[in-house]
Write a structure and sequence with these properties.
3 helices; elongated; single chain
C-alpha cells in the first residue's frame, strides 16, 4: 500500500508540472501579470491565475513533504511556504485589479 503522504506529494508534483506547461499559453480568461516573480525561475510570468495556482501547489507540496519529515536545504519550509502563498495572493490581487480596471473602462 502506498503511503498517502507520498501519493499526495506525487499528485501535487504532477499538478505542478502541468501548470508549468500551461503557463506558457495565457488563456483568454486569464490576464498576463507582469511585476511579480514567476514561479519558474528566470522566466517571465504567465497568466496571473496560473501563476497563483502554481505557487499554491508548490506550497501544498512543500507542506506535505514537511509533514513527512522531508525538509529542503536553504530557507525553512514554513518560511518558504508563507512566501509562496503571499506571492499566490499577490497574483490573485493583481488579476482582480486588472479585471476591475477592464470593467471600469467598459462601463457606459
Amino acid at each position: 500500500m502506498t503511503d498517502p503522504y507520498q501519493r499526495a506529494a506525487d499528485l501535487l508534483f504532477e499538478a505542478q508540472r502541468a501548470l508549468v506547461e500551461a503557463r506558457d499559453r495565457v488563456s483568454p480568461h486569464d490576464r498576463q501579470a507582469v511585476g511579480l516573480p514567476s514561479a519558474v525561475a528566470g522566466d517571465l510570468p504567465g497568466g496571473a491565475r496560473i501563476e497563483a495556482a502554481l505557487y499554491a501547489t508548490m506550497s501544498a507540496r512543500h507542506l506535505v513533504n514537511s509533514a513527512r519529515g522531508q525538509e529542503l536545504p536553504g530557507q525553512p519550509i514554513l518560511q518558504r511556504t508563507q512566501r509562496f502563498l503571499a506571492l499566490a495572493g499577490g497574483y490573485v490581487a493583481l488579476a482582480s485589479e486588472i479585471e476591475a480596471a477592464e470593467w471600469d473602462s467598459q462601463a457606459p
